[in-house]
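Record 1 of the preview.
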Amino acid sequence: MNNYLEQYNIIWDTPSRNTSESMPCGGHDIGLNVWVERDGEDGKGDLLFYIDRAGSFDENNQMLKLGRVRLRMTPDPFAADLPFRQELKLRQGYVAISGGYGVQVEVWVEVDRPVIHVEINSAQPVTLAASYENWRLNEREIPYERRHPCASWVAYPGCVTTAPDTVDFDGDSVLFYHRNRNDRLLIDHLIPQQGLEVVREQIPNTQRNRTFGGTMRGPGLIAAGTREGSDAATPYRAWQLRSAEARTHHQLDISLHTDQSETLAAWQAALEQLATVSANDVDAARTATRAWWAAFWERSYIALRPAPPNPDDPVWQVGRNYQLFRYMLGCNRNGEYPTKFNGGLFTYDPGFVRADLADESADFRLWGGGSHTAQNQRLVYWPMLKSGDFDLMPPQFEYYRRALPGAEARTQVYWGHAGCSFTEQLENFGLPLGWSWGWPGTTDRFHTRPPHFDPTEQIAPWLRYLYVSQLEFALLILKYHQYSGLDIQPYLPFIESAIRFFDEHYQWQHTLNALRPLDANGHLVFYPSTALETYKDALNPADLVSGLKGTVEALLEIASDLLSADARSYYQGLLERIPPLPMRQLQGKTTIAPAVSWTEIINVELPQLYPVFPYEQYGLGKPDLQVAIDTWRYGDYSEGQLSHVSWHQQAIFCARLGLTEDAARYTLLKLTDSGRRFPAFWGPGHDWVPDHNWGGSGMIGLQDMLLQCNGRQIRLLPAWPADWAVDFKLHAAYNTVVEGRYMDGKLEILSVTPPERAADVIEVERANVT
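->
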């Protein structure tokens, strides 16, 4: 049982200075940044929260906040001379705030419906003013140098604007929404840009008629006009609801709806139905929500040095922050779209991330909204296998399933063969970003597309020829099936198409280059290619060689029963065509090379260790472990390649190789306190705040230090320091759950479910474990 969760609750005894000191709260697919701030002009205390929701993508495919809510009570319970407490109650999944006059506030989100509730109880009557605040009041031109939130438009030579929202009173409710204008959608620029008009109908239009927003109301609250204001240098307008009288109980309900409705009336009717039903069902929703969160915490946990808790101990912080980050991931249980690596649902005003962005609104984030960077995004979802959070994973899988027809049609148009071709960065309708493809007429030398450039490839050198991530997501889906036993047949077409692309594409390419499909040894020739974004013009890159081999092996091992006899025969033959991993000698040691050859190094990734993770060609219990260890120890790496920030995965590599000291060192760098008021708001690193691929990679490394699977074998404590006491419950392959307690260098408690799987558990014999 997760007996230690309460010690990880975040408790503040003073209000926050600004949104950068906000606390995450959420559920369903909604994220709130919650904080209490004293107004600089009148000193009154306001309870505020930003609203974000998965799938809130505008015409530019920018991910927009759904607004900000401000609550003010009279008399003021948050005045400077009154007691204050704000607590994130993890087990129950809500934020509790208390102040003077016996005021107790609960902010929570339903897990089964997209509805936010604020409940206020007080010892003496108070009045409530609740304001919905919106800053997208007018058409706004996005400056040329500030287009990262709508990443496709970076370097576009023309004007780009954000369209305004619609906000108004609807009786005693505030109705707010953004409905995409169908005559100005990004997809309609990218399809002709990339020469794909002939397959337009096969590319899913995720933008047309997309409407997102909601309604804010509450019993006893009446419309009270609008006011103008400014917050974090962003002007806004507020639509205010007020209580008709002072009361000891107030309730505010915000219902959200997103749909590609053919008419605005249809969207509004569905929203009204949701708001009406949820208003009559608050008690049942609260019970269901708290029951879900309680079960969420019981299905897995890692508690480091929990007794007694010492918040100043970096090892204890690792355990606490692991739980906090997992909570943030749990807030997107039912998302139409996956949790974004660059802030998820919890970004805040960018001026508190970078001072030079102080004039931007809370909609700003680097690396886009509806766009997707696969190497970053994957790290958010891998840890969900061992945490057993299988119900959180389908939004990521659906991203690829929805876009598959367009990605296959794209391959046919460009090269005339089968298979899907998902690029490293792509929009949620499956096409490469406009900036990486290249805009004609731009003055940006990295993003301009020369008139005679290859019409099938991106101009951006980091991303050219980079398709390998589709293999990793295919492998992740297979592992999801192996761990959970859940059905993956809807995703099998994507898995098979992702694999087939590399076989057919490089046979086609080598025939053009050498008049035959395979080399003299009967192997595929992966050229031109790239080893991740780093080693360019690569021949047979290590990540692609190991990725194709590892994914095909996993398909045959995990999902063979879903394949026809002909398909199994094809994949067996494909394994014979995959070339060997490239090797090189470094300091007298045989090591894995990034590729057979390359011409330039332009980033800081480590593709030579992708055969360790994610593709599992090397590791504990596998052949030639020393080769992988020597690759880590003797590689000619730059300082940047050994960084711990953001998506760097050194802790994972070291844990998989059984290198306890290195794994622990990098895990401490990853998961100790962020330096921000909320300790799991890491970043910006390479990306943004909170940096979710920073947290995800840290989670994976910590999990792998505790437990690793190799076929049916379960290795316990393969890279665990002797002085890190831990209680844990993790999931292993084949519907297995492992619980244990490790203290004073000994495994004191071990429980395996189902019991017959205990025979497959290996406690690694190490000097610092026994």
